[in-house]
Amino acid sequence: MEKPSGPSHTRSLVIGNPLSNWTIRTGPEGVTFPVAELDGGAAGPTWLFTAGVHGDEYEGPEAIRRAVAALAGTRFPGRVIAIPVANPMAYAAGVRCTPADGGNLNRSFPGDPRGSLTLRWADFLWTTFMSRADRLIDLHSGGTTWKFEPVGGFYRDEDLPLVAALGLTLWRAPAAKGVLSYEFRERRGRAIGAELGFGGGRDEAMAEKIGYALTMLARGQGTAFDRQAAGPVYVHHDVLTDANGEWTARCGLGQGVQVDQVLGEVHDWSGQLVGRVVSPFAGRVLSVRNLVSVRQGDLVAVIGRPT
Ligand SMILES: [Zn+2]
What we know:
17 strands; CATH 2.40.50.100; 6 helices; about 30% strand; Aminopeptidase; alpha/beta; about 20% helix
């Protein structure tokens, strides 16, 4: 076979025939990506399972593949639309954002048909898939930049059972314009966004656990909810650095911290301390920066305040 050439070569995920259950769809600029649409054969909600909105997060795609394999050909109430690689351009490059324009797809929804490539891509996904769904589970990980405790982000209390169904720490996510789960919740229906792992690797046990949970949700099971057993809800607070240099964490995931406790330090190329980041209040470390390189204004930690 002749080697493909041209700009679409590096952006295409699949060469050849897709596996059964999967269809290769084509988005703006001829970029291709896999989608599975399953009809359970009975009345019920339309679930949208997404992952790969950032291209360096790998538990979500595997969880979705597992759920599709388990649900395909079975009877369940409603439909499932499964998109394991929502940003195929970033995925093909193994990076968080769209290489061509640097756009963060998870700040771009519901998109703009006349905007940048990332905004057009968001518009395409929204009009083609999100507009047909009424429940969303959007799966993320810390990627290569951050370590993230496995958390399920929700915006409204009635969505807590979805987080509990995934067996994740309850995280009241910030209202953030352009974020897929937030915009879906505002416009379509029940939605959560999960953080499942970190480091650009893949936690196989986590992928299996979440794949099973997605399967049970689509089957209409697994949403029995005990508020006490589910544990505290953590309110999200970003912690940024005001220094440039090399980041060294002085805290660990899940650790309890006090107000003004040192979370990490920034040193310059010579090893000189140029910044020290402290916790703004007592809470739990939900995320800490993994990438050593850090610039002023970068996120270095997320502190959850229990409520
Ligand atoms: Zn992400």
